[in-house]
């Protein structure tokens, strides 16, 4: 494995000095890029992209080739690979998003779920990680990721995405022991999955808790954060002579920043509803912060995008410990040149905060 030519992303996550604020975008390889759409058409469907290491590598590299100022690559995959490997039968309906052929609805269903082996059952992901890492050749760090146990559980119980999480929350309150068993199995699965990615070459990992913010405060602590804390405690934190930073991202998690900061990760991802400066005051020196521009700002003209980048940089203020990102994933309708304006503005305006 080659030395990194650009490690400012890893340095910022560990609150070490950097020359400019590093930047990457959640979903930076995706449908807003015409080259991605061409690759997906060639592959045939989304899962064929994910399961073919060459295709996964190709689409991971596309945003880096288009936007050379990006400071990190993120593995191209899906958060639902673990439930699929547990036998749930993941498929995608056009316009409907992810669906499962089997749903989890009883304690017996949960007891029957296997814990996937990352090499045997998710080997295609490990192949993609090692292929991408080789292709990057030290250009920027590679981020691995997983969904959080709670977020994965919602899809498994609902059978797909949901607006109200009716079945999942009914299970949580009616049979909490069943939900805890499901979450514990998922936490074990996520831990081994992320460790597999680290051993295959991921240099940082992020846990996406997309639906944790839909829980009550008490339920979030018990059914989401507790399991992310368990995962963090089981992760490989040093590999290839470097620390492997861990990022926790709970969408709509601004109420619980102090608790999340105590979970043992190196950085917290923030959505756009949080004030970055206030978040920095609340967490102190415990963790770095990642975020948090509203993705819909990218629909605006480049000058408006640059103004918002400047505002967010000023909100965080001087010093390291900030990775610039969107507050959630970039959306398919964004013009690529607007994404480019965002990325270049971060480097252009952030140097003054690192003198």
Strand-helix topology:
Layout: H1 8-13, H2 34-43, H3 46-51, H4 53-66, E1 73-74, H5 81-88, E2 90-93, E3 97-100, H6 107-111, H7 123-136, E4 142-147, H8 149-158, H9 166-174, H10 176-200, E5 204-209, H11 217-233, E6 238-239, E7 242-243, E8 246-250, H12 257-261, E9 267-269, H13 276-283, E10 288-293, H14 302-316, E11 322-326, H15 336-350
Parallel strand pairs: 1-4, 4-5, 5-8, 8-9, 9-10, 10-11
Antiparallel strand pairs: 2-3, 6-7
Overview of the structural elements:
This is Uroporphyrinogen decarboxylase. This protein is α/β, with parallel strands linked by helices and 355 residues long. The chain has a single domain (8-354), classed as TIM Barrel (Alpha-Beta Barrel). Helices cover 47% and strands 13% of the residues. The protein has 15 helices and 11 strands. The chain has a 7-stranded parallel β-sheet with strand order 1-4-5-8-9-10-11. Strand 6 (238-239) and strand 7 (242-243) form a beta hairpin. Helix 4 runs parallel beside helix 7 and helix 13 (276-283) runs parallel beside helix 14 (302-316). 52% of the residues are buried. The model has no long low-confidence stretch (mean pLDDT 96).
């Amino acid at each position: 494995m080659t030395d990194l030519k650009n490690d400012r992303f890893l340095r910022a996550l560990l609150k070490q000095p950097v020359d400019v604020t590093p930047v990457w975008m959640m979903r930076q390889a995706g449908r807003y890029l015409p080259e991605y759409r061409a690759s997906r058409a060639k592959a045939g469907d989304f899962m064929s992209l994910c399961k073919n290491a060459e295709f996964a590598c190709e689409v991971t590299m596309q945003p880096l080739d288009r936007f050379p100022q990006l400071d990190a690559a993120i593995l191209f995959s899906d958060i639902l690979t673990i439930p699929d490997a547990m036998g749930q039968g993941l498929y995608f309906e056009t316009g409907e998003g992810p669906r499962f052929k089997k749903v989890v609805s009883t304690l017996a269903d949960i007891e029957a779920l296997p814990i996937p082996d990352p090499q045997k059952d998710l080997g295609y992901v490990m192949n993609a990680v090692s292929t991408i890492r080789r292709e990057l050749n030290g250009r920027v760090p590679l981020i691995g990721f997983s969904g959080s146990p709670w977020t994965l559980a919602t899809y498994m119980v609902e059978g797909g995405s949901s607006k109200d999480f009716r079945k999942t929350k009914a299970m949580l309150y009616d049979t909490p022991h069943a939900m805890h068993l499901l979450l514990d199995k998922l936490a074990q699965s996520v831990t081994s999955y992320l460790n597999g990615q680290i051993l295959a070459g991921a240099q940082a990992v992020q846990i996406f808790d997309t639906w944790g913010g839909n829980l009550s405060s008490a339920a979030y602590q018990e059914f989401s954060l507790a399991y992310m804390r368990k995962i963090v405690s089981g992760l490989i934190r040093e590999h290839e002579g470097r620390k492997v930073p861990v990022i926790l991202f709970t969408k709509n998690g601004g109420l619980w920043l102090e608790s999340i900061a105590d979970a043992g990760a190196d950085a917290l991802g923030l959505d756009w509803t949080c004030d970055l400066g206030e978040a920095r005051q609340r967490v102190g020196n415990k963790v770095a912060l990642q975020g948090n521009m509203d993705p819909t700002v990218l629909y605006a003209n480049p000058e408006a995008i640059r103004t918002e980048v400047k505002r967010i940089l000023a909100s965080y203020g001087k010093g390291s410990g900030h990775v610039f990102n969107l507050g959630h994933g970039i959306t398919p309708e964004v013009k690529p040149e607007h994404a480019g304006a965002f990325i270049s503005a971060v480097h252009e305006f952030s140097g003054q905060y690192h003198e």
